[in-house]
Amino acid sequence: MSFQAEAVVNLEAIAANVANLARRTSAELMPAVKADGYGHGLIPAARACLAGGATRLGVATLPEAMALRADGVTVPILAWLAAPGLDLEPAIEADVSLGASSVAQLREFVAVRASRPAKVHLEVDTGMGRGGVVEDEWGRLCEFAAKAQADGLIELVGVWSHMACADEPEHPANAAQKSAFERFLDAVSAAGLDPAYRHLANSAALLTDRSTHYDVVRPGIAVYGYSPIVGQDYGLRPAMSVRARLTQVKRLPAEHGISYGHTYVTDRPTTVAVVPLGYADGIPRSTSNKAEVLINGERHPIVGRVCMDQVVVKLGKAKAHPGDVAEFFGDGEITADDWAIWHDTISYEILTSIGARVRRRYVGNP
């Protein structure tokens, strides 16, 4: 084995997860491949999504969209997050659809003098309180969009919003947001607009509420094998395994402190291993003295503080040698969900935090 630390990404698992999701809806799938494909790799993840049945892709930023185009991805792409003043012309020329989250932003799109009109998806705030046009401005938004389209300055491809509490299916905010989205669709129709695509559902809504599916669904975390609903199994398969090889195994005496601050002190003679992954690689410092890894099929605790580049693992009486593999998480006994519990967060953060110096190795034929 010629690696020190790696993230093994199973592309077949990503494709299978997308196919699983596709069977649950009649809407088109627009997987989110933002944030470097949730840490799995933008281009490989995108290709696997398409192999699994996705017909379009969603990203946050213009550079993400342009990277997909540069790699020859030709399906429709929506980039939904752009700060004022960016150079939009290359994206418009590359046939990237843009998310308009305000009237001012739509005006900016209209002002671009490209060889083709900007393809636009209007984003409205139905209760998330984040991006999107607030309800008091829906009429003005639709009126401006209708005029811009009539003048040949934009092509209105879609309208959309985002759900805040879909991972809690019984939360009253879900019904309120669906109702608000329907009101917005009425405003769109009243302005004489007829976009081809309406989209609202994320992974959780896709899996739990067909009434949110409309024409397109935007799965994110489910694509990469993790359930958005705590405790629910939808037959998804985690696609990433993070592992590293032990650099050292040694015996420590009783009452020996370990790592910075000596937050762990041995209570008896103890064998420990040093593993070359740390918080610079996405292993949260907050998991010190909480997290576990798998070595030779057995769980062993991380003891002492997580360092920038390495952790110390207590082996106890187990046998291990330098070069043996420690699996931090994967499609097995320890997952990113476990790390999310130890870090008091969600699996999304664990996956997207795995650092650039952890090489990605791709397996599986999607």
What this model shows, in words?
The longest helix is centred in the middle third of the chain and has 19 residues, at 172-190. α6 (103-111) runs parallel beside α7. The strands form 4 sheets. Strands 11-14-17-16-15-18-10-1-19 form a 9-stranded mixed sheet. The protein has a 6-stranded parallel sheet with strand order 3-4-5-6-7-8. Strands 2-9 form a two-stranded parallel ribbon. The chain is of the alpha/beta class. It has helices at 11-22, 34-38, 42-51, 62-70, 89-93, 103-111, 138-150, 172-190, 203-208, 336-343, 347-353, and strands spanning 5-10, 28-29, 57-59, 77-79, 96-100, 118-123, 154-160, 197-199, 216-217, 240-245, 248-252, 257-258, 264-265, 270-275, 292-295, 298-303, 311-316, 325-329, 359-363. β4 (77-79), α5 (89-93) and β5 (96-100) form a beta-alpha-beta unit.
Query: Helical percent range?
Result: 25-40%
**Beta-strand share of residues:** 15-25%
Radius of gyration, in Å, reads 24 Å
Distance between the termini: 25 Å
Strand order in the largest sheet: 11-14-17-16-15-18-10-1-19
Q: What general outline do the C-alpha atoms trace?
A: elongated
Unreliable sequence segments: none
Largest sheet: 9 strands, mixed
The SSE string, one letter per element, is EHEHHEHEHEHEHEHEHEEEEEEEEEEHHE
Give a topology summary.
Elements lengths: L4 E6 H12 L5 E2 L4 H5 L3 H10 L5 E3 L2 H9 L6 E3 L9 H5 L2 E5 L2 H9 L6 E6 L14 H13 L3 E7 L11 H19 L6 E3 L3 H6 L7 E2 L22 E6 L2 E5 L4 E2 L5 E2 L4 E6 L16 E4 L2 E6 L7 E6 L8 E5 L6 H8 L3 H7 L5 E5 L3
Helix pairs in contact: 1-3, 6-7, 10-11
